[in-house]
Write a structure and sequence with these properties.
There is one protein chain. By secondary structure, this protein is of the alpha/beta class. It is 33% helix and 12% strand. The protein contains 5 helices and 4 strands, in the order H-E-H-E-H-E-H-E-H. The chain has a 4-stranded parallel beta sheet, with helices on one face. Strand 1, helix 2 and strand 2 form a beta-alpha-beta unit. It is globular and about 35 Å long. The C terminus is likely disordered.
Length: 119
Amino acid sequence: MQEKIAQGVVIIDVRRQNEVDKYGIMPIAHKLTFFDNKDNYNAKKWLRSLSSLVKTKDTPFILVCVHANRTKIIGRFLDAKTDYRHIFELGGSINNGWISKGLSTAKALTKLKKPWWQF
């Protein structure tokens, strides 16, 4: 993975915001959520966003999620329905493939609706 990052491979984090809030995000990753909170998705919209990050069908990229389940689903979808040729996933996911190896994540500051002591 470190070698791929050094080569400039695009990292696509497909997790939902609550998962990013909990675990953080790899500093070099692009957040591009695929499934919403009800496991729905808009493939056309997501593919448009992906194409702005992955410029050619020959550009390698790595998918990241929490447990490596969604990356498998998305990878199979991309393999079957698109012409992308170099689709990878982070083995072990953000938890077992990154954080457990002592690699850092960045935590984004989220807006609190209001402090707990306000009514």
